[in-house]
């Protein structure tokens, strides 16, 4: 496959996954902040500050006003501000640019759905709605993103381009999930458990942030014990956004791309990461979960660098 095509479909996968992740994170954070703002203002503000930690190098482009809803500057910055490289607008624009570069490899349904969803976000930015309008537009965009992913899943050929797309998607997913957990776990596991309803609300919010609340309840029941939630997000083999399941998806994509030849540097990194998440003693690793998350972020960064050197530099 041409390096140009591999690069474009890989980044299309990353940017679409990033747009969906950011959209969901904004929706969940807005829900949590709205629910807690009246009685736990510090937690509402901390939830939005976590967004800045999860989306690195991003800064608010509008000042926080005491007279505006707490969510407004964050929704503006991370939804419709095309200058912010971690906004939904920017991610969809880059996904669209990469899709246009490999238009011949895509179906009409995929290209049209990407284009329409991007145009919708662009229009929301031009109208500059208030916080309620942005929240409604964000929910609509989230549905549009699932429409794109459905078109991809149901119309694209399972060829080498498909594996590069799914590789980009999986790499972005595990990276962003690790950052979400890294940002939120210290506050969730470091303090005394004094307010039971608030405690459960915080853990539910974390699970919703990575689309795993219902999957967790199905596997572990209604209890929200810290060890159970962390173990589920790290090690569950069946929930598609756990680190173990996502590392398996990355490894599978790299194995298919590499064929039966010698393992590439990226494939070796993916194999070691998957082994850490699949075969290490669960309780021992769980106790050092923050260190594990740091290793995941580092491994994924090096994996991307190895992929770039091997496949994307012509």
Features:
76% helix, 314 residues, mainly alpha
N to C succession of SSEs: HHHHHHHHHHHHHH
Range of helix content: over 70%
- What is the number of helical segments per DSSP (H or I, 4+ residues)? 14
User: What value does the average pLDDT take?
Assistant: 91
Fold and architecture overview:
With 314 residues, the protein is an all-alpha fold. The chain has two domains: 1-156, no CATH class; 174-314, no CATH class. It is 76% helix and 0% strand. The chain contains 14 helices and no strands. It has helices at 3-36, 41-54, 72-80, 88-101, 108-127, 131-155, 160-190, 196-209, 213-220, 226-235, 243-258, 265-279, 282-287, 289-312. Helix 12 (265-279) runs antiparallel to helix 14 (289-312). The longest helix is centred in the first third of the chain and has 34 residues, at 3-36.
List the helices and strands and how they pair.
Elements: H1 3-36, H2 41-54, H3 72-80, H4 88-101, H5 108-127, H6 131-155, H7 160-190, H8 196-209, H9 213-220, H10 226-235, H11 243-258, H12 265-279, H13 282-287, H14 289-312
Helix pairs in contact: 1-2, 1-4, 1-6, 1-7, 1-8, 2-7, 3-6, 4-5, 5-6, 7-8, 7-11, 7-14, 11-12, 12-14
